[in-house]
## 1
Amino acid sequence: MSQTAPRIAPLEPPYAPEIAEQFNRIMRGAPPLTLFRVIAGNARAWEKFRAGSLLDRGPLSLREREIVIDRTCARTGCEYEWGVHVTAFAEAARLTEEQVRATVLGDADAGCWSAAEQALIAAVDALHERATLDDAEFAAVSAYYDEAKIFEIILLCGFYRTVSYLANGLALPLEESAARFPRW
């Protein structure tokens, strides 16, 4: 993105006490992301974002969750959110440099993934491309993930597609310390 400022101005400190508390809860004391500061400037959008949020742990492991999020953000071309997640969670999720790269540049069947992860990535790709899973794709993901995890996969794809729409549509500048998409 060539812009240095988002299309809608983010909130600037000092924040209202309720907003500051919400930022601290989400960011665990770190400065709030531009994404959160922009959305929080619109009370209804901020309320809906937090209410529909999947910022909790959920039934997927951190690794599975991050694979879904990173792949969704990569497929939507959202370098902003992909970079934030890679920087914050890739190491804790035990994603190798090759795997991080593959979330952007690799196919679902890349050899760096386990069979379960390949099914997971194929499901993310199908949801991105067609907003559905065919019977074979559902069977493949069902071989490794129970119903609660399948719901979470689908919900995460939808939520992070929305996050990607927000970040891309509002032209959020990349966070200074966040990872950047790998290039060929």
Note: The mean pLDDT is 95.
## 2
Amino acid sequence: MTLDRAIMAFAGVMILVSIVLTKFVHPNFWWFTAFIGANLFQSAFTGFCPAGMVMKKLGIGRNATGSCCN
């Protein structure tokens, strides 16, 4: 799995988790969803992705090409 795909999968899971938390725990968890969206938006323009940096250190996408984060 490439780093790009791992980041997209992680973001998708986090969005789904935040939706479930908003529905079943507390309505203010929508702020978590907004934070994830804002982080995705800024990383599209800046290339700075904290999750990507952590995944890279963990070795995810090491043998694959086409990663977004250097």
Note: The chain is about 65% helix and 0% strand.
